[in-house]
Design brief:
seven-stranded mixed beta sheet; alpha/beta
């Protein structure tokens, strides 16, 4: 059975694998991003994204951190999916990434905004250790990592929260109600069929949060549809 390229790199001699694996990975990631309308990323950002990709592959083999294994899948469904957000809305900082998992969207956004403060919150300890390793290897400054789940009693004050929201909108609003400052914004990266969740959230949280933006979009040159919801704390 044929293997994909990243898995195949491990079969090369140690003296050849590292430089050849990284260079090819760099070029392929740059090519995918270029062909999906990300033509303006500088070499430093591309280098960090490539390092992150190989760290994800390594982590996947031991802890199943992401179900996306191929370079193209990671580049589109992780990197493009995260990097497109600030093209659709204006983000605020400090930015708290709730339930970041192996670092999405927080790590790609940190690479894109090296001078802004981003906080990653993750409750699974193995993922926390992975995130700390990523921070060290990629030399990411102003990146805080909080090793706990965000719930209603979480009171770390921030101006903005972002999450790739697998949870219901109402559940996320409940989780961040006491850490998001008044006037602060919640950015929810959702799928296209989120209208029932919006309705339930309005019924439960309409007095505390207002939906101020609802942006449907498609990842460039793909069929993948998304909705970006922005709530403001009243």
């Amino acid at each position: 059975m044929a293997q994909n390229k990243p898995a195949g790199f491990k079969t090369r001699r140690q003296s050849e694998a590292k430089p050849m694996a990284f260079q090819e990975g760099y070029e392929r990631i740059a090519d995918v991003l270029y062909n999906h309308d990300f033509k303006d990323l500088d070499p430093d950002a591309l280098t960090k994204l490539t390092k992150f990709f190989f760290l994800l592959l390594e982590e996947q083999s031991s802890h199943n951190s992401t179900r996306l294994r191929t370079l193209r899948e990671v580049a589109i469904k992780h990197f493009v999916d995260c990097l497109i957000v600030p093209r659709i809305v204006n983000l605020n900082f400090p930015l708290l990434d709730v339930g970041t998992g192996p670092g999405f969207p927080g790590i790609p956004l940190k690479i894109l905004y090296p001078l802004e403060q981003i906080i990653l919150a993750e409750g699974v300890q193995k993922r926390v250790e992975f995130l700390k390793r990523v921070r060290e290897i990629l030399q990411l400054e102003k990146l805080d990592i909080i090793g706990r789940q965000v719930s209603a009693d979480f009171e770390y004050p921030v101006r903005a929260v972002i999450t790739r929201a697998f949870a219901e909108v109402s559940e996320t609003l409940n989780q961040i109600q006491n850490c998001l400052q008044t006037g602060g914004k919640l950015f929810l990266m959702k799928g296209p069929n989120v209208d029932p969740e919006i309705k339930r959230a309005q019924e439960t949280w309409g007095s505390k949060f207002k939906l101020i933006e609802d942006k449907p979009y498609t990842l460039p040159h793909t069929p993948h549809e998304r909705r970006l919801l922005v709530y403001q704390k009243l």
